[in-house]
Amino acid sequence: MTTQPTPAEGTCGRCQQRRVVHPAKPNWGHVPKLLCTSCWQRYDEARANDDYVDWNDAFDNASDEEIVAHLATAKD
Question: Residue 71 and residue 76: Cα distance in Å, rounded?
Fold first, then answer.
């Protein structure tokens, strides 16, 4: 049986709140290393849906083609 690491208290790399933080998954790309539960869940759900949390996340992790496609649909 695999045991989960004990969460530590720290500052969330996204919202900057002092809370219980969890390590980000390596396959999420360029994201803060430690995230509070709420922010961790946002990244997890976004990646599960092939999406991004916000524009900062998209600029760091989306391909140029993905950004251009999104901007093209936003103009219409």
Answer: 9
Map residue 11 onto helix, strand or coil: strand
Reported pTM: 0.80
Structural contact between residues 6 and 25, judged by C-beta atoms closer than 8 angstroms: no
The token pair that represents 36 in the structure block: 């509070």
Residue 13 burial (CB count, 10 A): 15
CA–CA dist 30, 61 (Å, integer): 6
Q: Determine the distance from the C-alpha atom of residue 43 to the mean position of all C-alpha atoms in its chain, rounded to a whole number.
A: 3
For residue range 39-49, list pLDDT tens digits in order: 999 999 999 99
3: DSSP letter: P
- Between CA 15 and CA 61 the distance in angstroms is 18
